[in-house]
Design a protein that fits this description.
The chain is of the alpha/beta class and 204 residues long. It has one domain: Rossmann fold (3-Layer(aba) Sandwich). The strands form two sheets. A four-stranded parallel β-sheet has the order 1-2-5-6, with helices on both faces. Strands 3-4 form a two-stranded antiparallel ribbon.
């Protein structure tokens, strides 16, 4: 699949959820954060705020800069199955090997780079309140990404960058340095609770 398919999935999920809510706050992690930022830049109806956690604009792994070259070589050598197999996957040293891929397709990494490039292009269109959470020692995403995102989101007047004490990437999954409470506090502070009150459905 292409990054546009990933984005279409995010948009479809929003379209399904929005009719049942008066307010929507998107929380996106890592690549999901980049996709969430792109969608939020379209100013969808009912969007109240955005949370980006461990969202990449710059990566620690410098080998990612060679992905376009490998991707192109992979396409070029498509007529040589044995050579293509050698270039199709790269090892993935994951924090959670029990649930993550042991090897990542080069094509997937190429789509990731394109997603990040599109987010970078769209950040000036972002104007909703935004919380950015980033581990200060993240070994996957360069922590500088947080301030880079804030700097590029020139039309967003309410951006809160919080650096968490962590050398892990999965700050939300592992609830590192109070990540869950930080998100909940942000959501509550940007959600009009008056609009969320619903009458109890009487029992039959």
């Amino acid at each position: 699949r292409k990054w546009t398919d990933w984005l279409a999935s995010v948009r479809r999920g929003y379209e399904i959820l929005a009719p049942f809510c008066d307010q929507v706050i998107i929380v996106g992690f890592s690549t999901g954060g980049a996709l969430s930022a792109i969608h939020a830049a379209d100013h969808p109806e009912k969007l109240r705020a955005l949370v980006l956690a461990g969202t990449p604009l710059k990566f620690r792994n410098r080998n990612l800069m060679f992905v376009p070259l490998l991707y192109g070589a992979n396409k070029l050598m498509g007529w040589m199955p044995s050579a293509q197999e050698l270039l199709s996957f790269r090892p993935n040293d994951s924090e959670h090997p029990e649930i993550n891929y042991r090897n990542i397709p080069i094509g997937g990494l190429h789509q990731l780079r394109q997603t990040v490039a599109e987010m970078q292009r769209r950040l000036p269109d972002l104007d909703c309140p935004t919380l950015i959470l980033q581990g200060d020692g993240d070994k996957v995403v360069d922590p500088a990404s947080a301030t880079m995102i804030r700097r590029l989101a020139t039309n967003a007047s309410d951006i809160n960058v919080q650096m968490l004490k962590s050398d892990r990437h999965g700050i939300v999954n592992e609830d590192i340095d109070g990540a869950h409470d930080r998100i909940i506090d942000f959501v509550q502070s940007h959600c009009d609770l008056q609009d969320t009150q619903t009458e109890a459905i009487p029992a039959e």
